[in-house]
Amino acid sequence: MTSSRKVLSDLVPPSCEAATCRRGGCSVSLAGVPRDHVLVDLDCADLTILRGRTRCDYVFFAAESGRLACIVPIELKSGSVRLGKAVQQLQAGADIASSWIPSGPAPTFVPVLVHGRRIHMRDRRALRSSSKMITFRDLRKNVQTIRCGAPLSKAISKA
Length: 159
What we know:
Helix content: 10-25%
Order of helices and strands: HEEEEEEHEEHEEEH
């Protein structure tokens, strides 16, 4: 196991690591993402997240040179998107990820909303507003959107 992989594997129980990113008919390809990564299923029963607590579907962590380099909360929506709820879920995922990692230099942070249906232009504009930004420690980032089936690397490269 590389030192980068060990940094990531220590974050969560191994039973909560996912090999694929898929929910309710929507998925994201992991092609092109860094090799040293951990994808965490936030619905995993072995996590210490209270039942009923708002959260996104997954958090993707990537390491480089033995340090955490990238954090990506991911919310998957195969049907219509309720923007307010999706933003709350992504923020909750960012908060959970922040609680798991030690303080230090902030890694690249990219909140991602994956959607199956078209997002109305009004909602796309709203996602670019400061009120819909996701906060991770000192960073405030706009939500990146990609379609179901697209590679996660596409959203990471847009950040």
